[in-house]
Amino acid sequence: MKMKDAAAAIWDKVDDYVTEHLIPYDEVLERVLAANREAGLPEIDVSRTQGKLLNLIVQIKGAKRILEIGTLGGYSTIWMARAIGDGGRLISLELDPHHAEVATSNIALAGLEDRVEIRIGDAVLLLEELAKEKVEPFDLIFIDADKPNNPNYLKWALQFSRPGTVMISDNVIRNGEVIDHHSTDPRVHGIRTFMDMLSAQSAISGTAIQTVGSKGYDGFYIGVVS
Q1: Predicted structure pTM score
Q2: Predicted pLDDT of residue 3
Q3: CATH fold for the domain made of 2-225
């Protein structure tokens, strides 16, 4: 345990170092995190370094249409919405009305109401509604919601994709528990099924990146639809 504690302390310090040197202080984003805490939201937002990574991937891709599954307080939403620029559109799906209310306020604080739409309800049902609306494919899809439903989200994400669509899913390593086939955690089972589906899916090519830092030991899946 002491070795793990020591490693976590180093991860935190390295995150602080990287943030200090590469990610300038952003008053709006700090106010967003403060608003989330004050509203009692779980502190499971992506870290600043991870938010910046999402922002950069959106820029590299040149994405103008983004689907986010799981809004929470809108922290990751803001990182990505800033990168799509004027004329871009981001649709974010959130189950909890309270979370959505906080996120809506945060997005207004960031001045991004013109490009972000939050839809409230069960994400699977909301995805069905999007299909009925015959929405255009998205350039980037970020999955960061309830992990047991990741297999369902993957099915819909592929439906809303086209060749070149970038797909990202957070929390796929789960402190290494993803390799434990004896796990009784439904979140681990959701990720393992998600990974099994990806391994059998020829329409998307990707990898998983293990991450350490202020959010502990976890990782992202990143893929591109062919």
Answers
A1: 0.96
A2: 57
A3: Rossmann fold (3.40.50)
